[in-house]
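Open question from group meeting: does this chain pack into something compact, or does most of it stay loose? Before anyone orders reagents, we agreed to write out a predicted structure and look at it together. Recording both the input and the output here so the notebook holds the full record.
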Amino acid sequence: MGDQRGKIDEIIKELEQGGVNIKNYKEVEGLGDLIETALGKIGVTEEGFKSWFNLKECNCSKRKKWLNSVFSFKR
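Structure tokens returned:
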């Protein structure tokens, strides 16, 4: 569990360095944006995901939009 906390702390630090912090979180539309940013920091991208699993479409954008609408920071 301690190793996972270290990874999470590392991701939070990178997000903050990338400009996402408690003061400007409203610039991020919702949870989908945060997940996309966090996964991108560790190398997981939509194009990479499609390539790894030999997919033409993964619906990542649809999931991101759904998460942003359900877990919106702009309400």
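Observations to bring back to the group:
The radius of gyration is 14 Å.
Residues 13 and 21 are 9 Å apart (CA to CA).
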